[in-house]
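Researcher: Here's the sequence for the chain we discussed earlier.
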Amino acid sequence: MHVSLHQIARARSGDKGASANIGVVARSPNLYIYLLKVLTSERVAGHFSGLGVGKVTRFELPNLMAMNFVLTNVLGDGGGSLSLRSDAQGKALGQAMLEMQLDLPDELSSALVAETKED
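Model: Thanks. This is the structure I predict for it:
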């Protein structure tokens, strides 16, 4: 099943100087395990390559079913106070990340479909 990240996780982002961080929280323990496999630093760097992101570092927070990604230099020189980017403080980066497309394995797809019917 082909899904957008927003169907299986939540995200929040903000600036840290010229860098930004994006927190991603899975909707279930099984989805967290899946995201640990597919939501790599390299994949996130590729997703934001058009913004000129430097290094991407992933920090895992298993007791929260979450990950935090630090995107180095994604906001340009000077960050929020000096950057000419339309999102100089990185607030929209979490939403942009949630648009990432993923191939969800069948065993997780059926659980997601059942969960959606309950909502």
